[in-house]
Each structure stands twice: as structure tokens, then as C-alpha cells.
Design a protein that fits this description.
Two copies of one chain form a homodimer.
Chain A: H1 3-13, H2 17-23, H3 43-49, H4 54-58, H5 61-75, E1 80-81, H6 88-92, E2 97-100, E3 104-107, H7 125-128, H8 130-142, E4 147-152, H9 154-163, H10 171-179, H11 181-204, E5 209-213, H12 222-239, E6 247-250, H13 258-262, E7 268-270, H14 277-283, E8 289-294, H15 303-317, E9 323-327, H16 337-350
Parallel strand pairs in A: 1-4, 4-5, 5-6, 6-7, 7-8, 8-9
Antiparallel strand pairs in A: 2-3
Helix pairs in contact in A: 5-8, 9-10, 9-11, 10-11, 11-12, 15-16
Family (chains A, B): Belongs to the uroporphyrinogen decarboxylase family.
Protein name (chains A, B): Uroporphyrinogen decarboxylase
Function (chains A, B): Catalyzes the decarboxylation of four acetate groups of uroporphyrinogen-III to yield coproporphyrinogen-III.
């Protein structure tokens, strides 16, 4: 199926606010979506999600389709993001990963030695994660905005496999990275292959853009990031260049890494709330689209405070067309959906994306 | 007791490597100490610490004295830091705080409303925390290096009181900060008073320097930090200026806050491993001493990697006398003490502090 229809979808959406911003082209509004816009903050999500592992929900295409659509309907955001998780590929190939409610990914037998590389066979997306592709195909038929596919970037997925779960200090990860850089590199290389296979299949099934989540790369110094992580992220970015879709990158506490992240060749760089947007742009010596950067904690504030912080970000961006409004991290479960709805209104009503196009072609 | 003897101690130590560096004066070596140098990483600590709450150990001056001395003896560091905790004052006045092993500070009834301000009466250090002062007095008689006293900065202590424990997103803290800035300000003002009383008493008992731990201030955007936090930290810094001891500040992910932190008037600014030392210096427009900034996770690496990262930091500092070598965060419990010992050797053998004095007088 799909070749002709897919081409039609792609061309229909090419002029969407989100994709124009990803290319640095002026448009009539600032696009906005929210990381983790689908999920626990929405009553309609809690109503249909059930209990059990999120991995079970992801494996049901009708449910995952509906969950992906919910925030698009409610908020009128400019992009949908696939309801899935960064550990889906490693789970699907049998590494022994689950997601514990209130905890996050947990790994039964953490990655410890060269022998564990054997547990990371290549991903065959049609055979291993058919439900993901079915969800993408469902969504492409339903959506009027671009669908963002995604994968975990090699470092962040590796941190879960090595630590055995979420971590505060990444002690074991750093020990392996410095102690056996060759093995660490082989692990990240395999995880890069998994990410490549996964996002390629999502785009081939109809996703219009992709995002790499390297949420925890900001735990590293710039030199360690450049040496141990950047080459593997770049491998993923390069390997999907031929797909012609924007490639975004997300991480927190990455203020010192922004230039190094841009060096991977990504088209869109996420910025958390610690770095003002105009400063982030000055730190990156090539034209990229910036995405961010409202503090998700600010959404707990009274609405006038939220609005004023949204406006401050729009002011900092000053009409630059290469900008996608988002949060600096995921929507917190406690967030009032009405507040997010108001953020979308303010961005759409007051944001300007009418500055000159950036010289993207020359990058 | 103490007036004459204290003056003698102070003048004996005035020329110590640590205090010279805090004043920005050239010396014959780069001073080094480690945050959380006393504690679980040391076998001699585990041998005497026993089980039970750390608050009980802190309340035993002989034990706390010995624990403070252990790393000084073992490593030959250039400063001791009092074995205590940032929640000691709020615990001592009966706010209902304990420290759970493996978790951190937990609060029985978190701070929620104006009524909770009543639970924060002023601290009378001699009556409420006599054991802290006894430990300081013991140490001053024993030590050949300066003793650093400390307190939690208002924001970080507030985050524990409001969240009820350690937090990942500071959701409740930010909700209160934005939702009721007046109450939040009154809370931080009281916590500033507690910090002032505590550090004043420690210095009067003989501590040669003090450090404010605002470990989690880096969770805030710069604008929110300047508006909601900086005035209260500045109040503490100002209120102890007459003591004539260096005032240091510590936090993580504060790369974007460095100038704002320096604006509080502190003499020493901690830098985590995310910002190279020379860049940190460029970001701060007044002469301050920088303290940092080895990634504590790097201490898990093979010794040649550790040494090379220590040398890279010394190279970045390039002999600037206003520099104290430290980690970018606390010593991790898994750390091998022999590695820390080697770090001290490398810093002492290879570090240079022979650059021109900075124009501190003009700041």
C-alpha cells in the first residue's frame, strides 16, 4: 500500500507550519507542540489507557492511534508525536526491558560486557514492531498535521541498559564509557543501528519528521559528549538524510552541548528553559531550527504567569522563522490541559514567524 | 573561650593555599578539596558511622569531628568541610525533617501555606545546635587547614520543605513560587535568617570560610532565579560580610546562572563539569574565585583517564590564582579513595597558581 497516498500526504503537509519552521522558512504562525502531549495529563487518556505496562498499550495500534490523536484534537497543536517509547526497539528484540509505572524503563539483566552485545540483534521493524508501523499508517490517514516519529538516541538508551533503570548520576554508564571505550562504542553503534531501522520504518510508513531523544546527554561534559556520543548520533542523522524529513534532537541541560549537537547535522535542536532562545541561537554556528523552551514547571503557575513566560519566549525569538514552540521537557502529569490549550492560543495568536528565511541551503 | 586562640588560628591559616585562592592571591599550589569528601566512600567512615540517621551522627561532636578529619588525614586536602547537613537547622527547630538513607531529606508535613511559616522559628545556634558548634570547636583545635562551615541556601532548603523530599521536577516548588510569590518570598526570607544564624555561629566558633549549598537552583531559568531566589541568597551573603571569611556558592546545572550567582556578592562560585573553567570565568563579569569542576562520574574511570581530565582542568585554568580544585558535585559513594588521593597528588604536583592576582579589591 501507500506509495501514492503517502506522497500525497507528504505534499499536502509540506506547507504546514511545523515543517516550514523545520526548514527555516517564514510562515504565518509559530508552530507549537508539546513533548509528551499524549499521556497522563489528559483525562481522556486516563479513561482509555487502562493499567498494565505502557508497552502493552503501545502494542495496540487502535489504542495508540487514539492516544496520539487526543492532544491534537484538544489543543490544535501543529504536530502529532507517535505514542510510543524509546525502549520499544530494545524491548522488541528481547533485551528484557519493561517500563514500571512511576519509575521508568527497568532492565532485568543490565548490559555489562561484550557478551551482552549478542543480546542486541538487528531490528526488523515489520516483524518486530508491526504495531508501531500500523499505528503510524492509521495516523497518517487521520491527521491533518505532520506526524513526528522518533527513537531514543544511542547514549540515552545505553544509559538505561547499563544502569538497569533511570539514574541520577550515570555512574555505571560513565565507568563503562571511560573504562572500556571500545565496548561502549560498540554498544552505541548497535543502538544507532536500532534507531536507524526504527525511524526509517516510521518515515516509510508515513511519518513526516523524526526526533531523536537524547534526554540525558546533558549529563556529560562537552569533551566527553564529542568523543563518546556525538559520532553515534551523527551516524543516525546521516543514515536517514536520504528520507528528506526534518531530524530533530532533544535533551535537557544541554546548554553547553548545543553547538556539538548541531554538529551531528540535525535540522532542529531542542533547547531547555535554562538557555534563552536568542542565546541558544548565538551558540550554534550553523542555521538550525530551535525548539523549546518553556519550563514545564511553569505550567503549574497562574495563567497570567504562564502567558507572560510564553510571550517572553516569543519575544526572545523575535520572529525568527526557524523556531518551533515547545516545552523544555515533557508535559508533567500534574499539568492542567486547559493551561496547555491557552499556551497554544497565545503562540498562535501572538507568535510571529515572518523574519527572513535562514540560509539553510548553505549549511 | 576562644577569642585569642581563634585569632591565632585564623592568622595561622590566612596564608593557607585555600584561603589565598579564595582571595584571588597567587600561591605555590592549587588548593583542592572534595564536596562530600567525608562519608560513605571511605572505609574508615563506614567503620565508625553505625546505622541510624545521619542526623544522629551529626549530633555527636566526637563522632562528627572524627568523620570530618578522616578525609583530611587520608588525602591531604587543603580544606576540611564540617560533617553536617543542610537540613540541620530546620530539623533543630522542629520542622519535622529526617534524612532517610538512600533517599535524602524527607519532611513529615511539607510546607503548604502561610500557617506553616509559624513552624519556622528563628534558630538559636547555641541552644538548638550546640553539637554543631562543639564539633567546630573541636576541629579548630585539631586542623592545620581551614574548616569550611556551611548552610543550605534558601531555595534548595525550601525545595525540600515544599516537595517533602528530593524532587526531579520541583513541580510543587515552582507552583508555589509562581502562584504565591509573596508567601514563597516569606519562606525564603525565613530560611535566609536560619542560614545566617547557622553560618555566623559556625564562623564565630572558628570556621575559616563558609559555603552556601544551592544545589538545585540550576532547575530554574535565569529570569526566575534572579527574581525569586537571588535576593534571598544575597541577603545571606550580605549578612555575613562583616565576618571577613570567604563565602562560596555551590550548585549544579548552573551554567546559565553563573553571572547571576556572582551578583549575590559571593567570593567563590562553584562550577559543575558542564562548563569549562575558562568559559565560566568569561561568563562572570567580576573577579571571583572559581571552584570545580571534575565530573564525579569520571572518578569511576581508569586512573589514566582521571589524571588526564584533572590535567585538562588545570590547563583550562592556566595558572589563574583564583581557583580551587574540586568536583562538580559530591563524591559518589562508589568512589575508590585511592583515586581521590591520586587527584590530590596531581593537583598539588602539577597545578599552578602563579598568575597575577585578580583585582579583587575593586569588585
Amino acid at each position: 500500500m501507500g506509495g501514492v497516498r503517502l506522497a500525497a500526504v507528504t505534499s499536502r503537509l509540506a506547507d504546514s507550519a511545523y515543517l516550514r519552521a523545520c526548514r527555516g522558512e517564514p510562515g504565518d504562525r509559530v508552530p507549537v507542540w508539546f513533548q509528551r502531549q499524549a499521556g497522563r495529563s489528559l483525562p481522556e487518556y486516563r479513561a482509555i489507557r487502562g493499567t498494565g505496562s505502557i508497552l502493552d498499550a503501545i502494542a495496540q495500534p487502535d489504542l495508540a492511534t487514539e492516544i496520539t490523536l487526543q492532544p491534537v484534537r484538544r489543543y490544535g497543536v501543529d504536530a502529532a508525536i507517535l505514542y510510543s517509547d524509546i525502549v520499544v526497539p530494545v524491548h522488541a528484540i528481547g533485551f528484557g526491558v519493561d517500563i514500571k509505572p512511576g519509575v521508568g524503563p527497568v532492565v532485568e539483566q543490565p548490559f555489562r560486557s561484550g557478551a551482552d552485545l549478542e543480546r542486541l540483534r538487528p531490528l526488523d521493524p515489520e516483524a518486530d514492531t508491526p504495531y508501531v508501523l500500523q499505528t503510524v499508517r492509521n495516523l497518517v490517514g487521520e491527521l491533518d498535521v505532520p506526524l513526528i516519529g522518533f527513537a531514543g538516541a544511542p547514549f540515552t538508551v545505553a544509559s538505561y541498559l547499563i544502569e538497569g533503570g533511570p539514574s541520577r548520576n550515570y555512574t555505571v554508564t560513565k565507568a563503562l564509557m571511560h573504562g572500556d571505550p571500545q565496548l561502549f562504542g560498540r554498544l552505541l553503534d548497535r543502538l544507532a543501528d536500532l534507531a536507524i531501522a526504527s525511524v526509517r520504518s516510521q518515515v516509510e510508513a508515513g511519518a513526516s519528521a523524526l526526533q531523536l531523544f537524547d534526554s540525558w546527554a546533558g549529563a556529560l561534559s562537552r569533551e566527553d559528549y564529542r568523543r563518546f556520543v556525538q559520532p553515534h548520533t551523527r551516524k543516525v542523522v546521516d543514515a536517514v538524510a536520504d528520507l528528506g524529513v526534518p531530524r530533530a534532537h532533544f535533551g535537557v541541560t544541554t546548554g553547553e552541548l548545543l553547538a556539538a549537537i548541531a554538529e551531528t547535522g540535525v535540522d532542529v535542536v531542542g533547547v531547555d528553559w535554562r538557555v534563552p532562545i536568542d542565546e541558544a541561537r548565538r551558540r550554534i554556528p550553523r542555521p538550525v531550527t530551535l525548539q523549546g523552551n518553556l519550563d514545564p514547571g511553569v505550567l503549574m503557575a497562574p495563567i497570567d504567569v504562564v502567558e507572560s513566560q510564553v510571550r517572553a519566549i516569543l519575544d526572545r525569538n523575535a520572529g525568527h522563522p526557524a523556531f518551533v514552540f515547545n516545552l523544555g521537557h515533557g508535559v508533567l502529569p500534574e499539568t492542567d490541559p486547559d493551561v496547555l490549550h491557552r499556551v497554544v492560543e497565545v503562540v498562535h495568536d501572538e507568535g510571529r514567524a515572518d523574519g527572513p528565511a535562514d540560509p539553510r541551503g548553505s549549511s
